[in-house]
Amino acid sequence: MPAQQQDPFDDLLGSDSPPTHPVRPRSDSFHEGRHIDFFHQSGSPTRAPAAFSQSGPSPDSVSQPTYALDPFFDDDDEYGPDVANSYSGYFAPHGSQPLGHSDPSLLESSVPLANAGAIPAGFSGPMDDADIRGYQASSSRDYAAEDPFKDDEGPSAYAFTAPGASTGWTQPRRGRWQIFRDEYLTDVDWSLGLNQLLRRKNKFDGVPREITLNEPEENRLRGFEKNSVTTGKYGPITFLPKFLLSCIQQVPNVSPTGHWTTIVPLGVVIIASAFKEIKEDFKRHASDRSLNNNLAQVLVDQKFQLRPWRRLRVGDIVRLEANSFIPADMVLISSSEPEGLCYVETANLDGETNLKIKQAHPSTASLTNPHSVSLLRGHILSEPPNSSLYTYDGTFHLSSAHPGSAPTKIPVGPNQMLLRGAQLRNSGWVYGVIVNAGHETKLMRNATEAPIKRTAVERQVNRQILYLFLLLIVLSLVSTIGSSIRTWLFDKNAWYLRLDDESKNKARQFIENILTFIILYNNLIPISLIMTMEVVKFQQASLINSDLDMYYAPTDTPALCRTSSLVEELGQIAYIFSDKTGTLTRNEMEFRECTIFGTMYAQTVDDGKRDQGQRTFDVLRQRAQEDSQEGDTIREFLFLLSICHTVIPEEHDGKMVYQASSPDEAALVAGAEMLGYRFQTRKPKSVFIDVNGETQEWEILNVCEFNSSRKRMSTVVRAPDGTIKLYTKGADTVIFERLAPKQEFSEPTLIHLEDYATEGLRTLCLAYRDISEEEYSSWSALYNNAASQMSGRAEALDKAAEVIEQNLQLLGATAVEDKLQDGVPDAIHTLQQAGIKAGALKLTKKAWTNPHVIVNTETAVETSELLNKRLFAIKNQRLGGDTEELALIIGRVSPLQKALVVKLVKRSTDAPLLAIGDGANDVSMIQAAHVGVGISGVEFLSIRISLSL
Which residue ranges traverse the bilayer (predicted)? Predict the structure, then answer.
């Protein structure tokens, strides 16, 4: 490839064009295992040429990208079909020179930027080998896959992140300006303003960032984004081009017209449309201003001062009071609670209204006053901004009090992460340092920019007007040709009209005749139709806002139509996508039934089930007192329910209220209390259980947390008698494969699970085993080693849990009911009668659905034959018109995945789609659909700015 004459600053500060360097092969030993070193020269950090690492290729560098198995991810969504959709797909010259030195010959060959030693945005000092390894591991991830929304409907939602600006440049560089920003001289690429205006994703979003503690000026110079958030469609500069672009979508606005007779009505149409757009967008900006002007306490000169959210910056240390909302993504430093604990409610993020526990690292938990926090020195190596709500990787590098000592490194994970939009609950105050602000927060990364939506009526009118325009052209041509023929045949006889003037150009006369007939026939184009439609839409929106049938008296909340141009779509909806938690259901779980030792128990038992062996909870309480094998199993079952969880007990008006990370856990703990095993209180290393009036303290040794891949949670505890036990609860599929052989009542339990699933109940299996001191000592060392890893910590902890979660003894299973909202069955029935395809979401049991194919074969050949037969049968049904209308089932999906499913259906059908939800985790899905509807509730106010209705 010939050398390209370009400034290497173009690679670092963000060219808008995709990279043109060739993609390196997958297996290339020359490019693997490279790392970078930093050294100081005249007090300025400079990058040394990349050196070869002797450690060999990193496992992360050869792992498959996380989006490789995502059937909804489109490689063309990022930078086109010919460019790799990965941060590691960007290339920079190997052997790179320090910043400011250009050598075009270095562009002859290419190396992935993450491995070539390019300095990441935000780094200002030397990095040791551990830093480099952590940086390479972080850089090997694929963050580009998080922008699936860059399509025809509008620009990407990702905000541009200015790279760290270098200081000391006295001469302006080519294509850049030196400007004063916040009283500091900054060298900025001239394309920065356009990128910020369009909010395009910067290709350096995949680079980890370094955030200096208690150094606001240094962080300010790095160009981190401010905390101001804008969700409106237009701005003072962008209104005219964006509005005209939307007007161009309506054909009559570009039809040929004649002078004032058409300019005036055309101007009225445009002015009326502009007025409506300005009025609706003004409401969005008003909501933005209200949110951005909320106040927060920021540490300045060892004192906390009130500042609006919009003035917060990355690196600021913030104090939050109880019940306040978190203004930006923050790393927890300390709190008012013992051991640095705090409790947050994440209803705006994941739809869960129960509390989640966050805990500061012991190294910073003791910093509980402004003076001690202001003495904190060092930096945070933080992962790049991304949309994952449940992961975070970072490292505190705290400077030592002894000169010459190495900085202390503290791993930071999801347990220390406080996300924007969450609410601080049951904690007096917390201190945190901001790592992501504004549109870089995880909440905003899960929201797409509001697209310009066109209704089906508008599209149909545009087509009809286009046909009329073509008819206008045809009539004008025919009339012009007819006029020319008539002139040619009769101009000799009409000599007195002097039609045979030879001075006139025939071609010019022909064109003038065409324009004349176009002006005469222009009334075929119904310019007033658009005006009439706008007036009707405005009146329909007013009727919706004043409709008493949609008024909710308990919260004094009327219906609110935020986008009047989409009102007519409501009568043409063919598919509805609905959130389940909080929208279709109340998110209020109730412990209904359980099965222990092969026997089913319930609060009330009818005669039919009594004959099948089901018993009441009163019988269960009696059997729990017996000295028998069944009694021992029941007691272990109840101990597991009251210990293996992350619930926080609160007492309100003499009644115990359980706050949990999921409503299922709260329901299980409440069920244990109903059966005589009451969870009283929690300390950092123990829990207290009231067993029939006797208080017992159980020591919590280790907790293997639940996640969507493990589908289980385990707790290692030391009982009051000194024995060590492992309690595990989770999905039946993962629990049964970890049971010890020869389980006495596994078959009856499986049958009971099928019965619960048929009734639509949520089920969990419970198991346990005793652990010897020797086995626990060996496993504890393995677990602690996994917990101390800087990178890959979550995977290492999962592997450690796998070691001990074996040879379990089955205890039984639970059945919890998630109650539907009032009127949901009637609403679904009405929608089905209207021909709208609607279905339930987030189902996990095959017994809850009518499965298309059940595969239960032992070999690949048998499986292939069965699938081919079933596929042939489905095709025959389709040909015969017997195909069923299937419900769309979505379970355990992220906000972005919800939107991807909507877009998948959107691409395959022209029918209007409606999405409905009640939380910020539904915003992406709502904006991807043609019409978005928000349910007024606990979380509604946080997402109202993104809704159509």
Answer: 465-489, 510-531
